[in-house]
Amino acid sequence: MASTPVITLKGKVVDSNSQPLPGATVTFPDLKISTQTDLNGDFSLNNLPARGKFLIQIQFVGYRTLTQLVDMAATTPPVFTLQTSVIETREVVITGTPISGNSKQNSTSASTVTRDQLLRPSTNIIDALASQVPGVSQITTGPSISKPVIRGLGYNRVVTLSNGIKQQGQQWGDEHGIEIDQYGADRVEVLRGAASLLYGSDALGGVINMLDPLTPPSGQIKGEFLTNYATNNGLTGTSLMFTGNEDGLVWRARGSYKNAYSFKTPDYYFPNSGFNETNISGMLGLNKQWGYSHINFSYFKNNIGLFEAEPDNGLNFLKEDGEPFTNDDYKSRSLLFPRQDIRHYKVNWDNNFIIASGFLKVNLGYQKNQRRELEESVDPSLFFDLNTYTGDVKYYLSESNGWQPVFGISTEIGKSLNKGEEFLVPDYNSYGIGAFAYVKKTWDKNTFNAGIRYDYRKNTGKGLIEEDEVRFEPFTNKFSNVSGALGFTHQFNEQLNFKANAGSAFRAPNPAELASNGVHEGTFRYEVGNPNLSPERSFQADATLEYDNKFVSASVGIYENYIHNFIYASHTPGDVQQDVDEDGNQTQYDVYRYGQVNANLYGFEGSLTLHPVSFIHLENTFGYTHAQNNTLSRPLAFIPAGSLRNTLRFEPNIKGLKESYLYVGIDNFFKQGRFDDTFETGTDGYTLLNAGLGATVKLGKQPLKLYVAGNNLLNKKYYDALSRYKPGRLSSEDPTFGIYNPGRNITFGVYLPLSIK
Known about the structure:
Blueprint: E1 6-14, E2 25-28, E3 33-36, E4 42-49, E5 53-59, E6 66-71, E7 79-81, E8 93-94, E9 101-102, E10 109-113, H1 115-118, H2 125-130, E11 136-141, E12 145-150, E13 158-162, E14 165-166, E15 187-192, H3 196-199, E16 206-211, E17 220-230, E18 236-246, E19 249-260, E20 275-288, E21 291-305, H4 327-330, E22 339-355, E23 358-374, E24 382-396, E25 403-418, E26 428-443, E27 446-461, E28 464-466, E29 469-472, E30 475-491, E31 496-507, H5 511-515, E32 517-520, E33 525-528, E34 536-548, E35 552-580, E36 586-610, E37 616-629, E38 634-635, E39 643-650, E40 658-669, E41 686-699, E42 702-711, E43 745-755
Parallel strand pairs: 1-7, 13-16, 33-36
Antiparallel strand pairs: 1-4, 2-3, 2-5, 5-6, 8-9, 10-15, 11-12, 13-14, 15-16, 17-18, 17-43, 18-19, 19-20, 20-21, 21-22, 22-23, 23-24, 24-25, 25-26, 26-27, 27-30, 28-29, 30-31, 31-34, 32-33, 34-35, 35-36, 36-37, 37-38, 37-39, 39-40, 40-41, 41-42, 42-43
Family: Belongs to the TonB-dependent receptor family.
Subcellular location: Cell outer membrane
Keywords: Cell outer membrane, Membrane, Receptor, Signal, TonB box, Transmembrane, Transmembrane beta strand, Transport
């Protein structure tokens, strides 16, 4: 590796009148380092390479975000001029695409959620995204479990990234959530549409990219403390983080804990729906002139209560001994059986080596996901133990005459074992490898990109004979395919921007879809796989028009996604399975079988933000997905309802306080009348009223953010279209029986950023 001399980059940030802007944030995303300007608007960063072009992002409240390439070989200290704007700009850096770049020159439909937005009241990180990003929804099992859905697609069709590697937590399960600390991400990028070029099979719907806090400048130690309390289910959440940099030796440590008792609908508490969650994570690495090398680790533990509501009892919830639940039972933080015990261990080595004027990014990871489903005791009924090894290598050639090429290869090895008393999926091994080439060309106000990828996947399932009966037949499936994509952006002027994409991608069936055969305790149903499944093949296109000036920011997008051999589990009325436990007790379960159809999903999404004066902020987002099962000429099942969210935010200037705000929000969810009536029910439309207020006070030199927020303030009774507790999903015998979504919830929160050194 060629030796690269170290430099200290010095620069200045000013406004249009050449006046300094103290406190502006200066970030090099590809070098994972950030700093702020001093009282004179100056900044400096050491341990940077002396040559090469790197993307810089500069942000300051009340000004348009600036992104541009900086040539490290330049001898004159750069001066960056920011333009005033009372509205947030769309020109932010997106790192989850093959080449980092500002959003206006990136054809991918992408949204970013900032740290302040992530701190808004929510029960988990997917809940936070679904409430703020158009096109994003969630499959919920009460407040404790949320699975992301992008443009109507979820499960293994959405990739979640943490520290640059794919989260592998057995995403195929209805009640398998995302094993990631809600408080750990500093920023989240949501990429809508196929992202298979970079992430391979499983990214048909999109990507959720969780980004950790960047390292501070050399010689600094920073941190944060936050805590909150929610009234509906007594949810308490606390997180403490410290991060530092000593001459390029960088580190970060975080601990978080959440605990809740049973949630309350507008009419009643739902028994044993509490949860507790523990997260420990850290990073140790080097930021030097040759790039960076970081080792990240995390430990996630979640205990989640489950309750099988019986339609025969209506809402007279009874314990196992036949006695009704009391108020003390509902508010107890001790979980009963059945429940889930989930543990996720992860370590990865993330590197970016500067070679000549190019980059070599290498990310190696290992994950262990353990999911115990405890039915009657701490001895698990189902116990999935999944070990996953991942490797990802990308080489970025230096930019030349507007051309930016990148080549990459990735591999994934998985091994899953059953360690419980019961079985749902067989022991299996999985293997995947892929390679891609991508190029981006920028000229005048245009950007064009194209890419191609080849993937190979192999699944090997082990046979099992249980009590002289075949539970699982051994199987081996091999799949390979080629994906391709084209993208284009055009900036008509500083305010108006157009982007479009077209491409084809594929998804190989997972072992659960291929070979399930058993009771899935968490979903209260019997699942049967299909060993003859073919890969899904997606053909999709989208187009987005964006406009923003000093007072208005708007976007509208349309998309079309045709999926050949779409895989889903369905139930036929009368198809049931008797299960007998060790005591001879029989339980009847609905049987869900995996099959394939041709599906077509299309829709629109957008946002409109108005900022007529400095202290008024009106946000509006909307989204709708129309999904059709073309093979059977009926709607596709479990598709989110159309939504329109409106928030009016006041930001008054109050003496003694900073960043004061008061908001009122009205969330409209439309009737979902398009559903597969053979095994699903529709949902009525509903409107939720939300409100909140907050401000920042000074504790010496430390700012302290305080807030109070209320959701569903009118205590509205409703069923969400993607709730696993809505009518029809709990029982096919009584399709009218369901559990309402949570009622009124007031959240109190404190956030304290720390500047220690």
